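2 proteins. here.
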Amino acid sequence: MEKKKVVIALGHRALGNTLPEQKEATKRTAKIIAQLVKEGAEVVISHSNAPQVGMIHMAMNEFGKYHPDYTYAPMSVCSAMSQGYIGYDLQNAIRAELMKEGIYKPVSTILTQVTVDTYDEAFAEPVKVIGRVLNEQEAEEEENKGNYVTKIGDGYRRIVAAPKPQKIVEIDAIRALLDAGQIVIACGGGGIPVVRDYENKGCYKGVPAVIDKDLGGELLAEDCDADVLFLLTAVEHVAINFGKPNQEELEDLTADEAERLADEGQFGKGSMEPKVRAAIKFARSRKGRTCIIGALDKAAETMAGLSGTRIHE
């Protein structure tokens, strides 16, 4: 492989749902990442955190119910917790696989904050569902705390906004580690969404929201000056007419072609479309950049051009 800087965005499948699942999933994922490093790629990793942050949010809320002297954990804290323990498993698994290959390369996790716009229209229309199913009384309690809930089936679920990422707060630290030859895990779950706290000398404070992981990974790829954004998912290719008799898998698209298909509604709003939109943005950000969308278990073939969908200018 020609030496390239690659940002790998790991989806849900790469991490599993539970603690034991994550332990095993990260071992399998680490083998793939180690192979890419062995072939010469300079690697930065971002990852999903939806099941993990939901689990933490639920656990902290349950704890708060039985211990009134403790405050409830805000979403920003739950997100930070998820970045920490996912990074812990990932960095240890990757380091172990690298050592098997005779590669002694440090791996570090950066707890990453990402700024969002307080006037982002997403705050007026929260859509991301988190946490467990609530009964009517619990839903009312959430609303009394200023949170949003929505009716789902026989119960209720909390929903939060998904604003667009603006700036990675720790980008200088991430670049410094890359320059030092390390593999860096950053922007987990899209990053911890924060805004400026002007009452505290312009520092940052968390907001009750989540950032789309694909858009967070794309911003990370731009800011790290990556050549390739590699979005790993459950399918081998982006497809049009998905699930229909005339389904067609796509191997190579220009950003303009991908945008036209996305505007036509060819990609699932909550599944493939965010990946395609992130791919388009990355491909247009600098001449020569490519986004590859492909399956986790065919990552090596995809990087070699034998599988996956490539989106470029």
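next one coming up
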Amino acid sequence: IAECIQLVFVCLLVLASRLRPLNRTRRLRVALLAFVAIALIAAARFSAHWISPLASSILRDWLPAALMLVPYWQLGQFFTEPDPATEACLAQFDRIFFRWLGVQPARTRIGISLAMYLELAYVMDYPLIPLALLVLYTTGLRSRVNFFWLVVLSATYVCFALTLFIRASPPRILPGYKKFQIPPTPVRRLNRGILDHASIQAITCPSAHVASSLAAALVLLGVQPWVGLIFLWIALSIGIGTIVGGYHYVADVLLAAAVALLIFAASLCMYQ
């Protein structure tokens, strides 16, 4: 299932690059990234010819985690400039949401301990998916790996697909956006460094960070409730951290949660 989802999505992005007014270099990058993903998936598919069938099967279980971000980097080639109208709408929704909560971000100072926790939660999204997969392996639930990838990849890639039509910079770099007062911490510097050097310098809307972490938590809740609750707490912390840290707009997080829940519910129906 994971191989099919990833193959279809990277190829669809190649097709989309032909339909969008992108220059030759950007289109070539989209195609090269797709080629890398296809080559690795094909190599894993036929790896049983040179390694044991069990090792080949394990490799195919874990490879999707390594390839999850390939479509994300493909999407980066589609982003040429933000749409000010979209950014204004997202920022306006944030203002309405915070006003409804009775919070004024620009006047709200986040304590250093809470800031460290939320920044750490945000960075936890990167290892969270492999950790969830490890839980399935170590608890004798490897049979649920297909279902796990169906939910996680579908939720993540729906967010990626919608990003093609929503061009916006993250609120942390948006001029005039009223941000929370966050003290500088080593973890925040780490997050900024990762985003400055490895991100596409645009948001995914809905937030793929939130969708993937919540999707993984929902799967674990169904098979290992106590572990699932821990992952759910982390996923909720990631959602709050993305908003407070200025990494995503409120709408990104709320829509991502809705996507993860809908994908999970639809996948349950398919497997019943």
